[in-house]
TrEMBL record:
Family annotation (InterPro entries): RNaseH_sf
Name by which UniProt lists this protein: 3'-5' exoribonuclease
Gene3D superfamilies recorded: Ribonuclease H-like superfamily/Ribonuclease H
GO molecular function terms noted in the UniProt entry: nucleic acid binding
């Protein structure tokens, strides 16, 4: 049976998005989180006000460049990988595009994209997740990935 991994990203803006942070949570409990520094002037007002203040809490999460991010991410994926493919679940197509750019082209063949289908049910379960976890923050890539995994595991 394929391993399920929930993916979320935070990025600069909807037009010409640039990765700021990426979070992945495996159904087996392993987590990956990394951040890249981007100049605030490249970010939308929403990102400057909501996302950027959540960054920098874990100095070990900061990657100096895309190469370091790619190396860390591919290493993590290979460490947790079992014999079966991994279904990478996401709720926004830009998340997959930024993940693909982060791991490099082509995406490893063991990473299978799985867009979220039932958005209405997902939203209800996310509401429950945030209610149960008030210490976590929406628009933090790792926290959002945890919420996404919660919303798909309860089905």
């Amino acid at each position: 049976m394929d391993m399920i991994i929930a993916l979320d990203t935070e990025f600069t803006a909807f037009h010409n998005p640039r990765l700021i942070s990426i979070g992945l949570v495996a159904e087996t409990g392993e987590e990956f989180y990394a951040e890249l520094a981007v100049p605030p002037h490249e970010c939308s007002d929403f990102v400057r006000e909501t996302v950027l203040p959540l960054l920098g809490q874990d100095p070990l999460a900061v990657c100096q460049d895309d190469y370091e991010l790619r190396t860390r991410l591919l290493t993590w994926l290979r460490i947790i990988r079992g014999r079966e493919p991994m279904q990478i679940v996401f709720d926004f197509t830009t998340d997959w595009a930024l993940f693909a750019a982060a791991v490099g082209t082509p995406v490893p063949d063991f990473c299978i994209p799985r867009p979220l289908r039932d958005v209405e049910q997902h939203e209800l379960l996310l509401y429950d997740f945030w209610r149960r976890n008030p210490e976590l923050h929406e628009h933090h890539a790792l926290h959002d990935a945890r919420g996404l995994l919660y919303s798909i595991r309860l089905r």
